Amino acid sequence: MTFELQILGSGSATPMVGRHPTAQILAVGEGRYLIDCGEGTQLRLLEHRRRLSSLRVIFISHLHGDHYFGLFGLLSTLSLQGRQEPLLVVGPPGLEFVLTTQALHSQMQLSYSLTFVPVDTEAHAVVYEDALVRVSSLPMRHRIPCCGYLFEEQHRRAKLVKERLPPTLTPAELAQLAQGQDLPADPATGRPALAHADVSTPAAPPRRYAFCSDTLYTPSLAELIQGVDLLYHEATFLDDLRARATTTCHSTARQAGELARAAHVHRLLIGHFSSRYKQLDAHLQEAQAVFPWTELATEGLEVSV
Questions:
Q1: Domain that includes residue 95, residue range
Q2: Contact 28, 291 (CB under 8 A)
Q3: Do residues 85 and 175 share a domain?
Q4: 186 classed as catalytic
Q5: CA dihedral (284, 273, 19, 21) positive or negative
Q6: pLDDT of 61-101, one tens digit each?
Q7: What is the Cα–Cα distance from 287 to 292, expressed in whole angstroms?
């Protein structure tokens, strides 16, 4: 099953040609989950041939404009396209007030139902769950309430191995095995019990993706994201501006690498680059010096897990 992240924008607050505000889309099977929605996100989705109608849930990390100014336009476009499926928006308190106020004064009437789920940005708790993923909040330390999100794939069933299945199984017995159940012995026929584990291969471990939005370097986050397959962490500055990063409640590329190393993650993406940096090679080198399995979250990048 697909578990794929695409970077739609990796810039920070100040606009820059060729670098867009924060937005990502995570595809898990048939599910599409938008993570942050900076200005112009709907255009980025169209550029990458992502159907707007396929969005299932939108997650917003905090209410700085470069993380959600594109949301109202996207919601409006979905309505103009005649969307009927309900849409869920998960984000910090205050987001619902902002959007409903905009809708009130623009007299926008949506063609679909919109539900808000407020997040306690200081807690690590499940904020959304469906048949494909479970999503938990990750507390960030920023100038305003802010959270990241941990996406965990739901456990998959083990696969039956055709060559191991007895030819005499009934459809009902096959269905029982497919549900992960053992077959008990049949006293009437004397047929022995059949263990599900004997006719199946174990499912792969659930995949996990952690999105760490704007934040001070927070070593305690490592406990919450231990061993994730993929970590995105902001790297607004290089380490020679660590004091500036602390003042503005951001992190450096080196600090992102330090967190990835402490959390024993498999891969690290760094993004949210300050517009003062026209080239990003130094960010990559700085993070890789601490954590070699680092990549730049460049525009349009697709990462499969």
A1: 3-156+210-304
A2: no
A3: no
A4: no
A5: positive
A6: 999 999 999 999 999 999 999 999 999 999 999 999 999 99
A7: 7
Question: The pTM is what?
Answer: 0.90
| Overall domain count for the chain | 2
Provide the b/e sequence for 71-96 (b: ≥16 CB within 10 Å). bbebbbebbeeebeeebbbbbbeebb
| Long-range pairs for 160-166: beta carbons < 8 A, 24 or more residues apart | 160/199, 160/200, 161/199, 161/200, 161/201, 164/198, 164/199, 164/200, 165/199, 166/194
> Are 192 and 244 in a shared domain?
no
Query: How far apart (Å, rounded) are the C-alpha atoms in residues 68 and 58?
Result: 10
Same domain as 127, residue 248: yes
Token output for 104: 């009130």
Q: Are strands 23-28 and 87-91 parallel, antiparallel or unpaired?
A: unpaired
Catalytic residue of the set 66, 130, 198, 240: 66
In this structure, how many other beta carbons lie within 10 angstroms of the beta carbon of residue 206? Answer: 14
Could you report the per-residue pLDDT of 154-176, keeping only the tens digit for each?
987 777 777 778 887 788 878 88
How many whole angstroms separate alpha carbon 74 and alpha carbon 67?
13
Q: Which of 31, 27, 90 is nearest to 59 (CA)?
A: 90
Q: What's the CATH code of the domain at 41?
A: 3.60.15.10
Q: Indicate the pairing of strand 147-153 with strand 208-212.
A: antiparallel
What is the distance between the alpha carbons of residues 94 and 89, in angstroms, rounded to a whole number?
12
DSSP string, 15-28: -BTTBPPSEEEEEE
Strands 147-153 and 133-139, by their bridges, are antiparallel
